[in-house]
Design goal:
The protein starts with a strand and ends in a 6-residue tail after the last strand. α12 (297-306) links the parallel β14 and β15. It is of the alpha/beta class. Helix content is 33%, strand content 25%. The radius of gyration is 19 Å and the shape is globular. Strands 3, 4, 5, 6, 7, 14 and 15 form a 7-stranded mixed sheet that branches. The protein has a 6-stranded parallel sheet with strand order 10-9-8-11-12-13, sandwiched between helices.
Length: 322
């Protein structure tokens, strides 16, 4: 089979190599899946760079989530077992963790429903307890993680303010349903949020960026607001001033979705049931900006790494439009 492999750490376009390799063999409790679609996530870029919290042994195949097909023809969502990730024609995954692909979504959309939307749902509902009528501020609102949070925020009845970089991404954020879009390149985030909320600020901040995004968020957070720390796409990990959190009465909460797989797998399945219902109602639908063939995977991962992509880019190993 074909698979992209990384033999040394570096930029994805430089270190990912498309190779012929043997099909993986399932171990106890695992199942072999044919990959129908593999969604690209920012962690795939971090894996290539050797900067992710998990560092698989070299060589490895990136690709942390897929829509695949079992031997008996079932469409399922899976997180492949590293070091043999999803940018391949076949993967193995833990059978107990397989989730049924929603009928309302095609393969590419289904592949993108998993980690990003689960992260959004757990972050907004389990960690931040977002309520209808509250104001949600989403950074990188036109990206894969941010676009999921925008849709889930609107589904929860929140007023959603999206922060983006540039007019193209601003247009996409508006199409996603943001009530207000802030272009961080030309607008003052803090002043705009305060003006839009009558000086109150945002009740919940969803931050997959870190760095300057976090610094500005805590300047426009509401009384008893919650900042959900999802990731650090900016490359800069903030150092929170806990005295500031104390005097302004806001909470800083972390969200590492992967822990729920081991600590509370029943909650993951319940979340998937809820996401499946929302997809069937048309309330949420992953934004797929590109469907690329296997040969273009490395260049696509690099675009995600560089922050130039919007929504989700999905790799189709068969080369077809699924």
């Amino acid at each position: 089979m074909q698979a992209w492999r990384v033999h040394r750490n570096g930029e994805p376009s430089e270190v990912m190599e498309l190779e012929e390799t043997d099909r993986p063999t399932p171990g106890d409790g695992q199942v072999l899946l044919e990959v129908r679609a593999a969604n690209i996530n920012f962690p795939d870029a971090l894996l290539c760079r050797g900067q992710y919290q998990v560092r698989p042994p070299l060589p490895f195949t990136p690709g942390v989530e897929i829509c695949g097909e079992t031997a008996d023809g079932r469409r399922v969502l899976a997180t492949p077992a590293l070091p043999r990730g999803g940018f391949a024609e076949y993967v193995v995954a833990d059978e107990a963790a397989l989730l049924p692909a929603p009928d309302a979504l095609d393969d590419a959309e289904a592949a993108a429903l998993h980690i990003g939307y689960q992260t959004g749902w757990f972050g907004l509902h389990r960690r931040a307890h977002l309520q209808a009528g509250e104001t949600l501020l989403v950074h990188a609102a036109a990206g894969g993680v941010g676009s999921a949070a925008v849709q889930l925020g609107k589904a929860a009845g929140a007023t959603v303010i999206g922060v983006v970089g540039g007019p193209e991404k601003a247009a996409i954020a508006r199409e996603l349903g943001c009530d207000l879009v802030i272009d961080r390149r030309s607008e003052d985030i803090v002043a705009t949020v305060k003006e839009a909320t009558g000086g109150r600020g945002a009740d919940v901040v969803y931050d997959p960026v870190g760095g300057d995004a976090y610094a500005k968020s805590v300047k426009c957070i509401a009384f008893e607001g919650r900042v959900v720390v999802v990731g650090f796409a900016s490359g800069t990990i903030p150092t929170p001033g806990l005295n500031h959190a104390l005097v302004k009465n806001y909470s800083i909460v972390g969200l590492h979705w992967g822990l729920y797989n081991t600590k509370d797998p029943a909650a993951v399945r319940a979340c998937h049931d809820e996401l499946t219902k929302l997809a069937a109602q048309g309330v949420i639908k992953p934004l797929i900006s590109e469907r690329v063939p296997m040969a273009d995977a490395a260049r696509a991962v690099q675009r995600v790494a560089d922050g130039t992509s919007t929504g989700r880019i999905v790799v189709l190993p068969s080369g077809g439009i699924r």
